[in-house]
User: Fold this.
Amino acid sequence: MIRCGMSETDITPQLGLPIPGYLNARFADGIKDNLYAKAAVFRRDDETAALISIDALDFEAEDVKRIRERVYEFTKIPEQNVMVCLTHTHTGGPVVNCFETKRDEAYISFLIEKAAEAVASADSKLKPVKLGFGKGKAENIAFNRRYVMKDGSVKTNPGRKNPNVQKPAGPVDPDLTMMIITDTDDRPLGAVVNFACHLDTVGGNEFCADYPGELSRILKAVYGKDFCTLFLNGFSGNINHIDIHAESKPDPYHYKKMGAVLAGEVIKTRPFIQCREDVSVKVKSKILPIPLRTVSEDEYQKAKELLASEDTPAIEKVFAEELLVFSQYKTKEIPVEIQVIQIGDAFITGFPGDIFTEFGLRIKEEKPGFVHFLSSHTNGRHGYIPVKEAFAQGGYEVRTTRSSKLAHEAGDIMTAAAIELFSS
Assistant:
């Protein structure tokens, strides 16, 4: 029989701290809703897995290691059995250096402690449970944000009603995948929910968990105040909420609409999910040496010229500065972790970056017959991971910065490794 415990801790930062996610610096002057670190611990016999979902933009691999070490101190759960997922909210605390925004070490230490406390609390609540899996569809709320223009170029977010747009440059993944956890009397305890769309629907200078926060609020209202919802952001590097064909732009509370749509799909699907007690737990991972891109002498000199020129637009100066900073990296490759938690017939697959949705669709196509939870921004921060053809197309995601630095083949290498882990 499988056992599970779930818990959440409040990680809302103090006002005045920076909010990462944009090219410009922002400082928090309000709170739309609180931010949380949420944890679920799964145990079957002598195998244990801990899953953490944190309302924050990203986390460096060394900070993930600190969480894992602290979790081990609290619970003795092996470090390699802990998966740390970031929702990628663009209205969270200062956890990383991001363009003009700097990380706050005191807040990061606070968050690490709170995340580990969530796991320890979940571990203390372990009890026999039933688990079940389901899949719904959430269509027309997430869109590929890269578009082929009439001149053949590709632009990211080309603007609403742009007459030069020809078609989207790639697909979307409308799957809403869910795990439902109940006690042995079928009373609901919590859920793990997976959907692919950038958490950047709010904007502004107030802390907010974005649409997963609203999803969680609604499910608590339906299933009880202790119902714990862990959200895993899918492979959404090229996916956001903007419908460029809409008559009007999204309002400031669009995140509530998205959360309501996802919650409604969970509620609608829940009665058809069969929960079982005889569910196994396994954890696998692999460290891959992934090459970094190289900066040519021409690119280096052009960046210096752009910075020196008074005529260079401010945004281009930001990208030029980013390229110069990246060009000073001493290493030619970095270790990248791919991790898989298998729970029954479901695979929770973690990739440490902002990976394009095509790779998730490839995994689902290569491994049909399983339930796939695909989690980006997991166990580290390695920036955008586009498909190879995107580099020739252009667009924001492929411009070389500290947030987009892996070699062109990185996504293919990582996806192949994940598929191999499924079979091992």
Q: What stands out?
A: The mean pLDDT is 97. Residues 3-279 form one domain. The longest helix spans residues 105-124. The chain has two domains: 3-279, 295-331.
